[in-house]
Amino acid sequence: MTRTLDQKIKQRTFIAASPEKVYATITSAKEWDSFFTTGMRLDPRPGGRCVFAWENWGPDSYTLTASGEVLETEPPHRFTFKWGSKGKETRVNFDLVEKNGGTVVTLTEDGYRDDPEGRAMIMECASGWGEALTLLKFYIEHGITYTAPATATKSEVKED
Question: At what angle do helices 116-142 and 19-26 cross, to 10 degrees?
């Protein structure tokens, strides 16, 4: 059996909105698609399925899906799911605390395997979750939605 890393991802941000608003956003596939995913599916009840999907995402235009299961819901304070392939699942917690007229969002993710693939994934997901929380903040506070880059044709792509 492969051991898991002692380290976990921890990202925090302040959002100038109520925990109810933040919770409603992170438990809605339509809302996720406004700021961080493209084609997400989410049944936000314990035991419900979640499928994070990105199509032509970011500057590298990658396409990826990641499936999981909702584990815990405590509106408006906690939303937890696991995701990843069998035997490589990690657990993601969104904890929401009302503070200073808004919400402190603390995201933690743990369960990464202590092997080269697990160490690479924790690094990639740490930066990805930082991006997600920043985009969540901008979306809720300012209505800024994700804009996909225009697809470049082969002749427009420059090789180094």
Answer: 130
**Could you give the domains of the chain?**
9-143 (3.30.530.20)
Closest by CA position to 76, among listed 140, 25, 134: 25
Question: What is the pTM assigned to this prediction?
Answer: 0.90
Query: Would you say 15 and 137 are in contact if contact means Cβ atoms under 8 Å apart?
Result: yes
Q: Residue 80 — pLDDT band, cuts 50, 70, 90?
A: very high
- Is 119 in contact with 126 (CB distance < 8 Å)? no
Give the pLDDT confidence of 42-51 residue by residue, as tens digits.
Answer: 999 999 999 9
What is the Cα–Cα distance from 131 to 6, expressed in whole angstroms? 23
The upper half-sphere exposure of residue 134, i.e. CA atoms within 13 Å in the direction of its Cβ, equals 7
CA dihedral angle for residue 58, residue 60, residue 65, residue 66, rounded to 10 degrees? -80
